[in-house]
Design brief:
By secondary structure, the chain is mostly helical. Helices cover 70% and strands 9% of the residues. It is rod-shaped.
């Protein structure tokens, strides 16, 4: 197998030394697996949080747009009232 196609085996850095997970004792390998699962959960939670924030932003922008649109209607309505009153 060439160096370019060599599959990188999982490792952990201990005192700046790259230790292959295979070289860890059984308990160390189990802990490493747990670290990998928790790291994956963290990544998923971060993505979920970003999606939640995007939804909050969208709904916030939508309600602002609706409020401004309603305000426009009220201003137009008041202009019509003033115009109508000035004719009398």
């Amino acid at each position: 197998m060439s160096k370019e196609t060599e599959i990188q085996k999982p490792y952990i850095l201990i005192d700046n030394i790259q230790i292959s997970v295979e070289d860890l004792p059984e308990e160390g390998q189990a802990i490493f697996g747990r670290i990998q699962r928790e790291t994956a959960k963290k990544v998923n939670q971060t993505l979920d949080l970003e999606a939640t924030q995007a939804a909050i932003n969208w709904f916030t922008n939508r309600i602002v747009m609706l409020f401004k649109k309603e305000g426009e209607k009220e201003r137009v309505s008041k202009k019509d009232e003033v115009f109508t009153d000035s004719k009398n």
